[in-house]
Every structure is written in C-alpha cells, then in structure tokens.
Specification:
- Chain A is an alpha+beta fold.
- Chain A has two domains: 110 residues, no CATH class; 134 residues, OmpA-like domain (60s Ribosomal Protein L30, Chain: A, 2-Layer Sandwich), CATH 3.30.1330.
- The radius of gyration of chain A is 68 Å and the shape is rod-shaped.
- By secondary structure, chain B is mostly helical.
- Chain B has one domain.
- Chain B has three helices and no strands.
- In chain B, α1 packs antiparallel against α2, α1 packs parallel to α3 and α2 packs antiparallel against α3.
- The longest helix of chain B is centred in the last third of the chain and has 51 residues.
- Classes of the chains: A alpha+beta, B mainly alpha.
C-alpha cells in the first residue's frame, strides 16, 4: 500500500511538472504547430488540381491560420485558435480531395466505356473469327465428305470391274470348257487332243469329204477365239497297203486339213501338219473296227497357261 | 451567456455526420466531437462560458472534419471500383487475346 501511494504521488508530481513545462514552453510549441498548419495550407494552395476544388474552405482555413498566427496573451486561446486552424486546414484538404475524386470519375467512366467498347469489338472479332473458322471447317468437312464419296464410288467401280473381270474370266473358262467338250477334246501332256475319226476322208483318199466341214467348223471357232494357240495336225492310217504310201497319204491328208483351216482364215504360222502313216496305231489292224479307229486325224491344240484350268 | 449558437452549430454538425454514416470511416474524429460537445455542456453547467464556447467550436470542426474525411474515403472506394472494372475488362481482353 505504501509503495502504491508513493507511486501515485510520483505520478502526480510528474503530471504537475509537465503542465508547468507545457505552460512555460507553450509559445515555441505553439509557433511550431502554427507554422506546420501554415505550410500544409500553402502546399494545398499551390496544388493546381486541389486548390480549385475547395476555394471557400481554403479561404476559411487561411483566415483561421492567420488568426492563430497572431500571439494572444492567453495561451489557452492560442491553443484553441491553433486547434481550429489545424482542423480547418484538414477539412479544406479533405474537401478538395473528395471533390477531385468525384471530378476524376468522368474520366474513369470514359476509360471504362472505352475499355468496354474495345472488349465488345474484340468479342465481335473473336465471334467473327470463330464463325469464319467454323465455316472453313464445314467447307473442309464437305470436301472430305466429297472425297470420301468419290473414293467410295471409285472403289465400288473398281470392285464392279474386278467382279466383271472375274465373271468374264469365269465365263471365258466356262466357254473354253464347253467348247473343249463340244470338239470332244482330251487334255493330254502335249495339249488338247481332238481326234477326228475317218469321217474326213474316203478310204485311200487325201481330199476332205464334203461333210468334213461340219466336223472342222467347231475347231475353227475354237481357234478363232484363242488366237494365241498353235495347232499340230497329225494324220494316221491303218496298216493296209504299202507303208511308204500310207506315210505319203497321211502327210497329204494332214496337209489337206491344214489348207482347209488356212482357207478358214487361220494363220498358217500356227499350223503344223505331219503325216504319221501307220506308225502310231491306237487299235489292232486285224479287225475292221480296229482299222477304222487307226484311220484318224489328231489335232493337238498346244497348252497355254490359261487352258490349264 | 451560454454559447447557444456555437452549441447548436456543433450539434448540427454532429447530427449531419451521423446521418452520413461517418462513424464507419472517421470514428475517431466523430468521437472527439461528441466528447467535446459533452464537455462544452458541462462547462455551461459550471458557468465557464469561454471554455464552453471553445469546446463547442472545436466539437463543430471535429464533426466537419469527420464528414470531410468520410467523403474522401467513400469517393475513393467508388473510384477504385470504377478503376477495377476497367482493369478487369482490360485483363479479360488480354486473356482472350491469349486464347486466340
């Protein structure tokens, strides 16, 4: 308790001393505060933007500062006038600032409008660019679709052509088979062998009978269709009579066939005629039927790759 | 004679500051004004009329300063929002340009 009381009395002592000090040195402090207010006022007055905003408040502040600058006998009055002057300068400063801020709004608003316009212009540009690139994309897609359609069409045509080619090849093969069947040809290693019996010639003659043309006509049709194939014409006899004679007879009859074919516009280069005489019998010569089978003309149509099927 | 005119002026200044919701922006100045008005009334009670007049005058300029500072603060907020709006638009434009 004792210490507290002493502390309190110390505080009081300090407070009293301070009051006395303030009272004694009030004039210099006062002067300093007034000159501070004066300098802030001057600063405000010399600011071209701010000074025009609050002329009345600045004038009032000027009056208050001038009043404070005149020393009074009464220090409390000095302090009061100082306070009022200080506040008036602050008020003038604030009024000027807030009015300047309001004035700046039209500029800010213009800037914002200009930015908004720029933004809108940009948006329009972007939209237009988007629309353009969209139409470009549509165009590209259409071209792509056209290309795809053309390709599909051409693929279809190719497929059709291929199918037609296959069909034609199949038809050709079928035709060939039918024609081979019609001319009674037998496939052998040497080629297709068409055996014409002794229907072409009278016995001992080398001239074609008048009816032989019917038998040979089918062969001609076949050859005309397959122009690439060569023909070997081999004529055979039975063993009746002289062997040399038979050889000559067979050569002559083979030639007769060749000439007849040439007359049917078959190229002679494709035709080879050979008389084999009685050398290659296909049956015994001791019977009439055997001899009849031996008297024959064999037309061998050489193989090509396409006939192997 | 009590400083009736000075007291009324101080009261009006404080009332108008309160109407303008100055306390949100300049509460220190407004509190000082109220304290000084109360002190002025006390001084009138104690018949210290010179002191009462000075306190009333000080209360008035405190309240006026509170108003003026609040106006600056409010105006600054509005301007900053406008500026921000413009800045936002410009930033958006830059971003859109970057997107392209």
């Amino acid at each position: 308790m004792k210490t507290q009381i002493r502390n309190i009395s110390t505080l009081i002592a300090i407070a009293v001393t301070t009051v006395i000090l303030v009272a004694c040195s009030s004039t210099p402090i006062q002067n300093q505060q007034v000159s501070n207010a004066r300098s802030r006022l001057s600063q405000l007055q010399s600011d071209p933007q701010l000074s025009k905003q609050a002329p009345v408040a600045i004038k009032e502040a000027g009056d208050a500062v001038r009043a404070a600058e005149i020393p009074q006998d009464d220090t409390e009055k000095d302090a009061h006038l100082m306070y009022i002057a200080d506040r008036k300068v602050d008020i003038a400063q604030s009024l000027a600032e807030s009015r300047l801020l309001v004035e700046q709004r039209s500029m800010l608003s213009q800037q914002r409008e200009s930015a908004r316009l720029d933004s809108r212009t940009q948006e329009v540009d972007i939209e237009r660019n988007k629309a353009e690139s969209a139409s470009m994309a549509t165009l590209a897609a259409q071209q792509e679709a056209d290309d795809a359609r053309r390709k599909a069409e051409s693929d279809r045509m190719n497929t059709l052509a291929a199918q037609q080619a296959v069909a034609a090849a199949q038809q050709k093969t079928a035709d060939l088979k039918r024609q081979i069947a019609e001319i009674n040809a037998k496939p052998t290693e040497r080629g297709l062998v068409v055996t014409l019996g002794d229907v072409l010639f009278d016995t001992g003659k080398a001239e074609l009978k008048s009816g032989a043309a019917t038998n040979l006509a089918k062969l001609v049709a076949f050859l005309n269709q397959y122009k690439g194939r060569s023909l070997l014409i081999e004529s055979h006899t039975d063993s009746v009579g002289n062997e040399d004679y038979n050889l000559g007879l067979s050569q002559r009859s083979a030639d007769s066939v060749k000439i007849w074919l040439m007359n049917q516009a078959v190229n002679s280069g494709r035709l080879v005629s050979t008389g084999k005489g009685e050398s290659s019998p296909v049956a015994g010569n001791d019977s009439a039927s055997g001899r009849q089978r031996n008297r024959r003309v064999e037309v061998i149509i050489e193989n090509t790759d396409t006939t192997s099927g | 004679m009590p400083p009736t005119a000075e007291l009324q002026a101080a009261e009006q200044a404080i009332a108008s500051a309160e109407r303008a919701r100055v306390a949100d922006y300049a509460s220190v100045e407004l509190s000082k004004a109220r304290e000084k008005l109360a002190a002025a009334r006390n001084a009138v009670q104690e018949e210290e009329m010179v002191q009462a007049r000075r306190l009333a005058q000080q209360a008035r300029v405190d309240a006026e300063l509170a108003c003026a500072r609040a106006e600056v603060a409010k105006a600054r907020v509005v301007n900053e929002q406008m500026q921000k709006g413009t800045d936002t638009l410009k930033q958006e434009m830059q971003r859109k340009t970057g997107d392209q």
